[in-house]
Amino acid sequence: MAAFDLIVIGAGIVGTACAELAVREGLRVAVVESGAVGGGATAAAMGHLVAMDDDPAELALSRYSLGLWERFASLPEAEFSRCGTLWVAREDSEFASVAAKIARLAAAGVQARRIEADELYRLEPALAAGLRGGMLVADEAVVYPPRVALHLLGLAREGGASCLLGRRAIGLSADGVRLDDGSSLIGPVLVATGCALPELLPRLPMRSRKGHLVITERYPGRVHHQLLELGYADSAHGDADSSVAFNVQPRPTGQILIGSSREFGVDDRDVSPAMLRRMLERAFAFVPMLRELQALRVWTGFRPTTFDGRPYIGAVAERAHTWVAAGHEGLGVTTALGTARLLIDQMLGRAPAIDPAPFLPARALQ
Q1: 346 contact partners, CB below 8 Å, separation of at least 6
Q2: Which pLDDT score, from 0 to 100, does residue 365 have?
Q3: Global pTM exceeds 0.85
Q4: In sequence order, what are the residues at sequence separation of 6 or more whose Cβ sits closer than 8 angstroms to the Cβ of residue 208?
């Protein structure tokens, strides 16, 4: 049986980030993935690198991770585009909330500024008439997550990681993990399987949240920033069975990526015409010209959601040598690199750069 210093189960953006960092730290690493690399929740992500201010712990993790993403700013495979994030207010009450958001972001080291309506339309002429204003976070960016996951796995491989692709981990053992071909691997295990986490760690609750995405043909110059409504966080982190929010992203290819929808309690991957229509109507209300564009592809995916909205990052207290990094929902891409650093620092017994306590899996077992 092969022995390793870390066996990473799952090759999404979080798992590959952890594997790549572990290799850089000199660990002997194996990666096990039953499906396509970056083909799970990573493929259902918009790739927005964003600081959300509604939870202090996640804001700290996001801010920390955003700094680590600068390493990939000039990497062609990442399709890194520093388009900035423009939050849009339709109502006076939303616009009034901007000052407090700017203050919370500033306290975490994220610079944002208030945008009056006239500047809003200079920045994005395609926005619907009558919007109240907004908030610009100029340094934020977008990436293409599946290609980043492939790149990170490639770096891990170059550093000596063993990759067992097409293999499924069917159970944890006392000293490692059992695979579906009857073989076993020996060593500490990191479970980074997103929605599938309970298959290996059933005591850690996880809900799957389905989402739809649409990408258009190429229309360069129609949208310039990542655009979101200021009420986006209420949808993204709420508990409603279904919700939609305005979220439109310009891709470096000239295509426009349109989101977002969220549904609990739906298991099939089929596109829901009703949910798709609801999501698009929300986008059309903010950017009417989107109605004129030709969609190239519509797809769905599932994002892993924990009971309190924060990911599990850390040791599984009830199992020796078992770690977890899963449940990032809509912030998995933003926080992947920070998650990897937070986890590996804990594994190596070093003091993490941010407080790990809010993310420890033990909170779900109390």
Answers
A1: 314, 315, 323, 352, 356
A2: 83
A3: yes
A4: 195, 264, 267, 302, 303, 304, 305
